[in-house]
Amino acid sequence: MHRLRTTVARLRPLTAAQTAQTLAQPRLLAIEGGLRTFQPVRRQNTSVAAEPFLNGTSSNYVEEMYYAWLENPRNVHKSWDIFFRNANAGAPPGAAYQSPPPLNGTSQGLASFQTLVGAQPNVEKLVEDHLAVQSLIRAYQVRGHHIAKLDPLNISCVDFDDAPCTVGLQNVELSHYKERLCKLTAGGTTTTSGFYGLAESDLDKVFRLPTTTFIGGNEGALPLREIIRRLEMAYCQHIGVEFMFINDVEQCQWIRQKFETPGVMQFSLEEKRTLLARMIRSTRFEEFLQRKWSSEKRFGLEGCESLIPALKTIIDMSSQSGVESVIMGMSHRGRLNVLANVIRKELEQIFCQFDSKLEAADEGSGDVKYHLGMYHKRMNRVSDKLITLSLVANPSHLEAVDPVVQGKTKAEQFYCGDTEGKRVMSILIHGDAAFAGQGIVYETFHLSDLPSYTTHGTIHVVVNNQIGFTTDPRMARSSPYPTDVARVVNAPIFHVNADDPEAVMYVCKVAAEWRNTFHKDVVIDLVCYRRNGHNEMDEPMFTQPLMYKQIKKQKGVLQKFAEKVIAEGVITPHEYEEEIAQYDKICEEAHTRSKDEKILHIKHWLDSPWPGFFTLEGQPKSLSCPSTGISEEELGHIGNIAASVPLEDFTIHGGLSRILKGRGNMVSQRVCDWALGEYMAFGSLLKDGIHVRLSGQDAERGTFSHRHHVLHDQNVDKRICIPMNHISPNQAPYTVCNSSLSEYGVLGFELGFAMASPNALVLWEAQFGDFHNTAQCIIDQFISSGQAKWVRQNGIVLLLPHGMEGMGPEHSSARPERFLQMCNDDPDVFPKLSEDFAVRQLYDCNWIVVNCSNPANYFHVLRRQILQPFRKPLIVFTPKSLLRHPEAKSSFDDMLPGTHFKRIIPDDGPAAASPEKVKRIIFCTGKIYYELTRERKNRGMDDSVAVVRIEQLSPFPFDLVKAESDRFPNADLVWCQEEHKNQGYYDYVRPRIRTTTNRTRPVWYAGRGPAAAPATGNKQTHLTELQRLLDSAFDLEAFSGKL
Ligand SMILES: Cc1ncc(C[n+]2csc(CCOP(=O)(O)OP(=O)(O)O)c2C)c(N)n1
Ligand SMILES: [Mg+2]
Asked: What pLDDT shows up at residue 102?
């Protein structure tokens, strides 16, 4: 009985506790005719056997009914009311149930229950005890993980109370522990009389098991003692299963079955041997590195060596169920070990990275060894099937790689037609502190079930070493577990003591099966420790002295496991020693070979090779870009699709009809506005088999209601039409998707999508350009620097609405200055010109930044993304007011075969006719061009001022700008922008324009003064500022004598 009490004391059954409270105090219930006192006594006097509906299947239901009835008899149907009244009044077995009153409302039933009063106390006790047992079972299922032995160090500070966690090692104190238990059981479930009236004498009584448990195996009833023992085995050993928050009954039942069924956690000899061999590799790999390079940072796995068999188990199981490609993302901890022992990167390639004299073979800055990625196809020995494993290269920024992995996974699924995630899957490995702390984890979880973003279930593994750098969990998070974030998507969470490799292997098997069955996310929380400091050079005793005293005493997991399996006779000590020696030898030999490596090829660490896209040497197949124009016929055809509703009986909104009609008119006049130009670009690429994917908040319609790529039937709910998918029978599919309200997560996802294949145009559109800064990490760490660090190209396109429209500081600026500041072209060096200069410049740059002033140029730059023989990220500052500006239209002539993207658009008006008369060249970019030309016209200065648009800001068109400066030898040079002086393009273009004139001509500034905010909130101030900047742009004396 002591065990029962202890057990019961540790659990706080939810409904039972609430009910106990209810029962403890008489409650006043409002009923018709006044108040009455409800007696706090449970009197269910009917027998399970005698009432056939009171079987295991329905008992949960009955219980809930009963509680509802206790609250208020009217809460339940009349028939239940009668039943409970009869039972309460002591109706004999089988007599409490009365058939429901007839629908015509006669009160026959009600009248007859009066006659049943007459108690049978033994039956009452029986039902009561069954309900108690059921509550007990449920309590284990809900809260068993609270008391499971999850922490190898036994210092866990998980605190399930609301109060912040205040314990570290003190938890080892039993007194504190008891205190905590007392709090846990608040609600009165641990009275001296036991749990809900279950007493010591009940331990050997046999209870029928509800269908919500599988502890019985083939047995439908068990003695209470055995029920508790089995529940303890299922929920309170080295595995803590957190799943009862899941709303889906089938999923809950599935998990119960996996963990409760007696004997589930048994392994064959073969499995145990494999597990041991994997533990040996994992452990000895770190030991080998430690021996050879004791003063090198490697972020070793010591304390969580079972991560390797964990991942391998997941991969084995998934491969067996048909998965052909696994994409992984992880941070520093244990990364080299994963590369060596999971992905199977050649050991010499890893070891040679420790050689500081190694020369880099590839261009770019490269990256440190624990950030590089990898791609490897190999035979899975367990499934005997080929499997491709890749680890995505990642920056130091913890968890930033999560959405990228998801995007890459989605793309691979998409390209192989894997609509259910049966062939391609992802595994994300997290640190405990980062998993709880980084918001990107939450954003990534929220993509997991969205139709255009789901990867059909990710397996998350948390290396929960109970510390982040030097910070304890009590300072690092407010939630009890680091994994609580996963609860938002109803992902089951399997906590497991990582010092028990068999338990780890078991939860990994279940996790893989879960994913394979439900195609939903699942989390494995590997509760472990970190044997060394944050890295091998760090001293953990400064900050965690007690924890590390404990860790020093801790026997290594391999040693513990080896002792266990040797004792079980799975392997002899001699065989064990041999296995170790064999792996050590493999490492030694690889080490010897690694000394021959003199050059480091980052190319060998590619996570996403693009077979067929490059030459065998990894070079682009040419350095030229064909014309990006398309035929008149194609323009007409796509334009007509854009103006039509290709489905029968599809009613669109009247306003949209007008928009489509307008498009039709444009097509007949052979002109495009912005939306139509985009249509032409997407449609023509799709027609040529290039997949186009546009994602962003409200991207389907377009924030500014200009795009309308998804039409909605006004009469039929959810009926939509995407005309872009009706261009040609053999076209590639078009994906346009409204994203969740996230930038960091979604941009990371799209970047990952673009990583998978060069043959897709992947675009992410910010709602307004300034919102990109919540995705800054992806921009800085991946987009601008990804190729330099990881020799991996990426052709993602960012569409960033930008422009000063007098709308206030928030929606005005996409911060061009930030993008331009990160461009890698040299402002002070005039580059060598060659025939292929324009393409070579593109090839050498880290990204392309454009601000197109007309739809044709936007059309060309999008098509160039695919037609150029390499991939570069493209940043496009897109317009807002120009979307509907009557002058911002392009003729089909500018989009026909032979036409190209124009890096600059020179002045072709009167100024160009007599260039020597021109007094000023105004260089500008984007929408201000239209304001400048209007002002120029108003002032009658068309022949004295040339306005030149720089459409491609980076790489800077040195050659063309020089040609313009040379063309107007008597002109002064002005840069005009609507953005504030410390923002926009000025700091970027000024030194470059100067370089084009060999610094012989100054570059003057006409624009707003410096400011902290991107724009004024006052419309009038905005207009005054604009007029002032136009005034100085056209004041030919403005800069005289200012040198
Ligand atoms: C976004 C981000 N912030 C801060 C850091 C610095 N940093 C590197 S490791 C680390 C602790 C990580 O702890 P945890 O996630 O538990 O992983 P562990 O090192 O314990 O395996 C921190 C704060 C980082 N790399 N990335
Ligand atoms: Mg940690």
From this structure: 46
Distance of CA 911 to the CA centre of its chain: 54
Q: What's the rounded Cα separation, in Å, for the pair 475 and 543?
A: 13
Asked whether 660 and 723 are in contact (CB, 8 A), the reply is no
- If you average pLDDT over residues 29-36, what whole number do you get? 33
Distances (CA, A) of 1029 to 919, 924, 1023: 18, 13, 10
CA proximity to 293, closest of 394, 369, 396, 391: 369
Whether residue 517 has its Cβ less than 6 Å from ligand 1: no
Greater confidence, 124 or 696?
Answer: 696
Q: Which residue has the higher pLDDT, 44 or 238?
A: 238
By CB atoms closer than 10 A (0-12, 13-18, 19+), residue 651 is: middle
Cα of 434 vs centre of ligand 2, distance in Å, is 7
Mean pLDDT of 1005-1034: 96
Q: How far is the CA of 433 from the centre of ligand 2 (A)?
A: 5
How confident is the model at residue 5, as a pLDDT? 35
Minimal CA–CA distance to 979: which of 1005, 959, 945, 954?
1005
CA distance 781 to 783: 6
Atom number in ligand 1 closest to CA 530 = 20
> Strands, DSSP E only, in 392-472?
424-431, 458-464
Give the closest residue (by CA) to ligand 1 atom 12: 468
CA distance 214 to 261: 5
Pocket of ligand 1 contains residue 395 by CB under 6 Å: no
3-state helix, strand, coil in the chain (%, to 5): 45, 15, 40
- pLDDT tens per residue across span 993-1006: 999 999 999 999 99
CA of 937 to the centre of ligand 2 (A): 65
Collapsing DSSP to helix, strand or coil, 429 comes out as: strand
How far, in Å, CA of 41 to CA of 39, rounded?
Answer: 5
Ligand 1 close to Cβ of residue 148 (< 6 A)? no
Q: Kindly report, residue by residue over 771-824, the tens digit of the pLDDT.
A: 999 999 999 999 999 999 988 899 999 999 999 999 999 999 999 999 999 999
Mean pLDDT calculated for residue range 56-84: 69
Q: Is residue 735 in contact with ligand 1, taking CB distance under 6 Å?
A: no
User: Angle at Cα 897 formed by Cα 893 and Cα 901, nearest 5°?
Assistant: 75
**Could you give the CA distance from residue 181 to residue 977 in angstroms, rounded to a whole number?**
67
Residue in this structure with the two tokens 């008369």, named with its chain if needed:
917
Q: Tell me which residue has tokens 């929380």.
A: 525
Question: Would you say the CB of residue 333 lies under 6 angstroms from ligand 1?
Answer: yes
Euclidean distance between CA atoms 114 and 708, whole angstroms: 69
* Centroid of chain to Cα 372: 20
CA atoms within 13 A on the CB side of 463: 30
Q: How many CB atoms lie within 10 A of CB 254?
A: 18
Cβ neighbour number for residue 832 with a 10 Å cutoff: 7
> With bands split at pLDDT 50, 70 and 90, how would you rate the model's confidence at 103?
very low
DSSP 8-state assignment for residue 342:
I
CA distances to 14, 60, 677 from 21, rounded to whole Å, are 11, 19, 69
Residue ID of nearest Cα to ligand 1 atom 26: 397
Distance 431 CA to ligand 2 centre (A): 5
Q: What is the whole-number distance in angstroms between the Cα of residue 533 and the centre of ligand 1?
A: 12
Residue 188 in tokens: 């009165």
How confident is the model at residue 52, as a pLDDT?
44
Task: Give residue 138 CA to ligand 2 midpoint distance, Å.
Answer: 32
CB 165 within 8 A of CB 239: no
Q: Does the Cβ of 401 fall within 6 Å of ligand 1? A: no
Is residue 297 lining ligand 1, measured as CB closer than 6 Å?
no
Element (H, E) at 29: strand 27-31
Residue 433 Cβ contacting ligand 1 at under 6 Å: yes
Q: How far is the CA of 491 from the centre of ligand 2 (A)?
A: 21
* Alpha-carbon gap, residue 709 to 723, rounded angstroms: 7
